[in-house]
């Protein structure tokens, strides 16, 4: 039987946190939400730890876009939610999404909190939420959701190395306006703190500007610190 909602998690070497991530989703699973883990070639214990706590674990070429598309192909849900492994959903996420879709929205995202010690993280989160509301562009940290019909109509995520969430948002905006759910997801600020908050802000501004000007997403991914995928 098809699920109303499928949650798709792209992962790579997440053994340290995958059990905690999936444990947070068990209440949603108990209400009929499908959970799919899309692995990009983990070499640690991610797969072994994930299998008992997910409905399905699928393999895909490394890269969030290709992994999320692979998970979407296996999903039975009428609505797809793409969730980062270090992001926690609000307790009533399934009901909030159902309400947005029931009101006629084809896609949307949540507001975000960034969890960490640095005093700038709440400011960054507030700016992310403000920017998203004014541009209609969502980021992966905001837990993008989309109806299966709309996702298939735009061809899913473009298989690019970085900025795939911006590209998907732009494609979906050509169909309809998104739902902005004020309830917050909580995402880890570990990357911001590890690499320096101000340095990361400056880097992301430059990468987004370069993408708008037509830069190759593979080159942007290397500058961001992602490992290139071997074809």
Automatic annotation (TrEMBL):
Residue ranges occupied by any Glycosyltransferase 2-like domain in the UniProt entry: 6-103
CDD domains: GT_2_like_a
Keyword annotations: Cell membrane, Glycosyltransferase, Membrane, Transferase
Locations listed in the record: Cell membrane
Pfam families: Glycos_transf_2
Sections of the chain in a coiled coil: none
Highest taxon in the source lineage: Bacteria
InterPro entries hit by this protein: Glyco_trans_2-like, Nucleotide-diphossugar_trans, Trfase_2_rSAM/seldom_assoc
PANTHER family: GLYCOSYLTRANSFERASE, GLYCOSYLTRANSFERASE 2-LIKE DOMAIN-CONTAINING PROTEIN
Record protein name field: TIGR04283 family arsenosugar biosynthesis glycosyltransferase
Organism expressing this protein natively: Thauera sedimentorum
């Amino acid at each position: 039987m098809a699920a109303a909602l499928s949650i798709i998690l792209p992962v790579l070497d997440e053994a340290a946190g995958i059990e905690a991530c999936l444990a947070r989703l068990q209440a949603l699973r108990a209400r009929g939400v499908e959970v799919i883990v899309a692995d990009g070639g983990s070499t640690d214990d991610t797969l072994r730890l994930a299998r008992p706590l997910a409905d399905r674990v699928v393999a895909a070429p490394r890269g969030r876009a290709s992994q999320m598309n692979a998970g979407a192909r296996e999903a039975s849900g009428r609505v797809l939610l793409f969730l980062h492994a270090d992001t926690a959903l609000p307790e009533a996420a399934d009901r909030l999404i159902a309400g947005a879709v029931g009101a006629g929205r084809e896609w949307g995202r949540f507001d975000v909190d960034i969890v960490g010690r640095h005093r700038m993280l709440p400011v960054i989160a507030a700016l992310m939420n403000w920017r998203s509301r004014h541009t209609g562009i969502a980021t992966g940290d905001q837990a993008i959701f989309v109806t299966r019909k709309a996702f298939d109509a735009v061809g899913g995520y473009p298989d690019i190395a970085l900025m795939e969430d911006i590209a998907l948002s732009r494609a979906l905006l050509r169909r309809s306006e998104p739902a902005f759910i004020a309830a917050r997801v909580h995402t880890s600020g570990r990357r911001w703190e590890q690499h320096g908050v101000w340095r990361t802000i400056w880097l992301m501004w430059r990468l987004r500007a370069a993408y708008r000007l037509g830069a190759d997403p593979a080159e942007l991914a290397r500058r961001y610190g992602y490992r290139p995928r071997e074809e």
